[in-house]
Design brief:
alpha+beta, three-stranded antiparallel sheet, 3 strands
């Protein structure tokens, strides 16, 4: 199933990517984290043409920042 594979891939990478899911020309990169007892997410989204080639870099920056916020 495609959705299950997307989730598995995102968990393996440490961040999730949506390309054209909301609008055909947009991309979003997100990472979830806990802060205390609450769940949060950090997300970067924008035009696909601007984010192409930077998804992995942005994903790793989000992972790092989420870890800092989570303490």
């Amino acid at each position: 199933n495609r959705l299950k594979q997307v989730i598995v891939d995102g968990e393996a990478a440490g961040y999730h990517v949506a390309i054209g899911e909301y609008q055909s020309d947009t991309t979003a990169i997100a990472v979830g984290f806990r802060f205390g007892t609450e769940c949060y997410a950090l997300l970067v989204g924008g035009p696909t043409q601007r984010l192409e080639g930077h998804i992995e870099e942005i994903g790793h920056m989000l992972i790092s920042r989420a870890a800092q916020l989570a303490g």
